[in-house]
Amino acid sequence: MTSPVHVLGVDIGTGGVRALLVDATTGTVLSREQGAWSSSSPHSGWSEQDPDTWWNTTSSAIRRLVERLDDPLAIKAVAFAGQMHGLVLHDEDGNVLRPAILWNDQRTVSQCEKVHDQIGRETCISITGKPVLTSFTAPKLLWVQEHEPDIASRIAHICLPKDHVLFKATGTRVMDATDASGTSWLDLSSRNWSETMCNSTGVNPSWLPPVQESSEVVGAINALGAAATGLPEGIPVVAGAGDQAAAGLACGVTREGLVSMTIGTSGVVFAQSDTPPQDPSGTLHGFCHAARDRWHVMGCMLSAGGCLEWWRNIVGRHDDAAGFDELVSEASHLPPGAEGLCFLPYLNGERTPHNDPHARGAFIGLASRHDQRHMTRAVLEGISFGLADMLDLLRHAGHATETIRVAGGASRNETWMQMLADVFQVTVEMVNEPDATAYGAAMLASIGAGTVADAQAAADTLVHVTGTCEPGERCFKQARSTWKTLYPELAPAMHRLSDQSMTC
After folding, report:
1. What is the SS3 assignment for 37?
2. CATH code (residue 416)
3. Which end of the chain is less packed: N or C, by CB atoms within 10 Å?
């Protein structure tokens, strides 16, 4: 009898960890675990987390998975993926110097402008595939150097969220090309650190780890990692990927002509590119793909599922899939347009298509006839219209968008998936594993374990379409047309309100 080959894929997300134990040959999810953590916001627009909480929560979740196995040695490889861009600072001994500054933190507007003024926005796009944005890692370092010089003086190493966890598990310092391409320090073409970008953003090159491809074995579970997780010492660990590259892999987007959409805290549209993508406008952003020597182009709205989580908390629904499904079901009987109510989903600023950290969310058109159902419907439509904006950008850039594969927790709700098909006027497909980032990490671990040859083989073998929604009538055309006029008209007021909140 052939011995089982299992792999472990772990997603270090914004709201917590998800870990999947997967049969590396068939892609069957054998077991899953999760754990939660919270963010802090010491000031308006700030978003921080404790990196050691990531490790403590993650190691506990992995231990619970391992304890269910008769033979932990069946696990042949591990991969971590997760939230991108977050700045994690270590001293010489590997201690965390301050809370991590996350991808959705908006404090670095002036630092982004400083880099663009110094070397030119066009130069940044030509080297890194995008402008320097508040989401990215480099301006966060500049902020620390300007505002926390005592901490900056003790920096010995910089890593990203999932790489902090990888370091704790293995003692290895490494960053994969997908995550590195979201720092504003990587040359997108060479897939290595750019001297120009490092010099312009105050980073000492010795602080940055080596860059590796996502499926490369870069280390192994060490004694400390084994003691914390229950994993056997010596299990290979691959470099892993940023969450969006892992999710794109889990949707099978490893060739031109297929687009994925991941709806988590943020919302992302994702298309593969055979060459380093360049959008001179800076609206769409180029990154390295988890597939070796491939790239991807994507747009990101900062609050997609995050808007729904916010709204669910506001109305006091329980924090699980049932609470989400109840809200969607109640709102599904209303007509498109929510009877004249619109929602702008910019709770944490926006990145695509409006690179505007001062954008804010809003309900517009409230009337006495509107109730919770209308507001839920408006939130769902506002998120869907924002995702459609990014899909339009991909179309204009020449990417085929006849079929969209959707992953993330929202893909479990067929009502919303049908709404997306109707809004986008394309076929929407659901794939076999909604926890796409963790599953994409497991696919990378399968490559590291040798059960599949590469990312293309992993996509062909381990990704399956499990449901389809065909577009109906163009019933959202008028509602979306009205919605699109609102941000340009309200942006000046949003900016004034944002300025007031920052000075309170």
Report:
1. coil
2. 3.30.420.40
3. N
Active site residue 243: yes
With cut-offs at 50, 70 and 90, classify the pLDDT of residue 367: very high
Query: Are 226 and 147 contained in the same domain?
Result: yes
Quote the pLDDT of residue 381: 97
174-191 tens-digit pLDDT: 999 999 999 999 999 999
Mean pLDDT within 377-405: 92
The length of the chain in residues reads 504
11, 163, 243, 356: the catalytic one is 243
- Both 236 and 357 in one domain: the answer is no
- If phi over 0 gives left and psi between -120 and 50 gives alpha, with beta otherwise, what is residue 191? left
Domain span at 315: 305-430+469-503
* Euclidean distance between CA atoms 400 and 499, whole angstroms: 40
- Tell whether 10 and 29 lie within a shared domain: yes
In a domain, 20, yes or no: yes
The number of distinct structural domains making up the chain is 2
pLDDT tens digits for range 212-243: 999 999 999 999 999 999 999 999 999 999 99
Q: In a 3-state reduction of DSSP, which class is residue 112?
A: helix
The pLDDT, as a whole number, for residue 181 is: 97
Cβ burial of 204 (10 Å; 0-12, 13-18, 19+) is exposed
